[in-house]
Amino acid sequence: MTESKGRPGSAGQRPTGGDKAVATQKKQYFRRKKVCRFCVERIDDINYKDVRLLSSFIAERGKIVPRRISGVCAPHQRRLGDAIKKARNIALLPFAAAI
Amino acid sequence: MRIYEELFIVKPDAPEEEVDQFIEQMKSVVSSSGGSVDKVDKWGKRRLAYRVDKYREGAYVLFQFNAAPETVKEFERRLRVSDLVIKFLTVRIDQTLKRLEKRKKDRDKRAHRKAAAPSPAPAQPSMAQQMLGESAAE
Q1: How far is the alpha carbon of A5 from chain B, nearest alpha carbon, in Å?
Q2: Which domain does B8 fall in, by range?
Q3: Is residue B112 part of a domain?
Q4: Parallel, antiparallel or unpaired: strands B55-67 and B36-52
Q5: What is the dihedral of CA B101, A92, A80, B108, to 10 degrees?
Q6: Fewest CB atoms within 10 A around its CB: which of A12, A23, A36, A53?
Q7: ipTM
Q8: B95 CB near a chain A CB, below 8 Å?
């Protein structure tokens, strides 16, 4: 116990992010690497008034799409979430959409 | 002084003149307290994402103004009192604008530097580098 406590920061051992492209030899599938749309298209301003952009990041029921699905990077997901919540408040986006 | 954005929804069945009159009134609220109205934008009628006070649609009006915090308080109070307005949202945007401007400046600077010193082309440019190169060429 004490030994493991003594060196918690052994850098090489730490697991890395799970959403990386994986093309292992054992399993015969290839996962496409997801990229953050805001980084690629250089969208600086995630504005709550831009309903068309925001609605591509909400699910059918009106929920915010998690970034493990959409591939958005953390800083942009944070701003995206804020923008969606503002848009919901002023009835541009639904809190819960009916199907 | 701070820059604010005020988006509010007016009842869809309100007469046009009344709305215009109300907008003028709100403008005077800002200017009388030493602020300045930068932009007033009427989006027109839009469908609401959910029902608000039994209305399924509403007319959106966007204000952008430069004012002190106390002005916003008064502005919001008026919106709340008014029968025309069914919903409103106030957003402070000066910090956001500042951040965006900085990002744009940094980006321009970087592009400038790239253009000034063309890097020797690597044998097999990676995807990211290709994309960067393309956007720099633009």
Answers
A1: 40
A2: 2-95
A3: no
A4: antiparallel
A5: -20
A6: A12
A7: 0.74
A8: no
Residues of A with CB under 8 A from a CB of B: 40, 42, 44-45, 48-49, 86, 88-95, 97
Per residue of chain B (138 residues), give pLDDT as tens. 899 999 999 999 989 999 999 999 999 989 998 889 998 999 989 999 999 999 999 999 999 999 999 999 999 999 999 989 999 999 999 999 999 999 899 988 988 888 887 655 555 555 555 555 555 554
CB pairs under 8 A between A and B: 34
Domain that residue A57 falls in: 35-99
From the list A45, A90, A94, which residue is nearest B87 (CB)?
Answer: A90
In a domain, A75, yes or no: yes
Q: How many domains does chain A have?
A: 1
CB contact under 8 A, B89 and A94: no
Q: How many folded domains does chain B comprise?
A: 1
The answer as to whether B109 is a domain residue is no
- In sign, the C-alpha dihedral spanning B33, B73, B89, A84 is positive
| CATH number for A98 | 4.10.640.10
Residue B52 sits in a domain whose CATH number is 3.30.70.60
B101 inside domain? no
Exposed (0-12), middle (13-18) or buried (19+): which is B7, by Cβ within 10 Å? buried
Contacts of B64 in chain A (CB under 8 A): none
- Candidates B62, B60, B58, B49; CA nearest to A85 is B49
Is residue A80 included in any domain, yes or no? yes
Tell me which residue has tokens 């469908």: B47
- pTM of the full predicted structure? 0.72
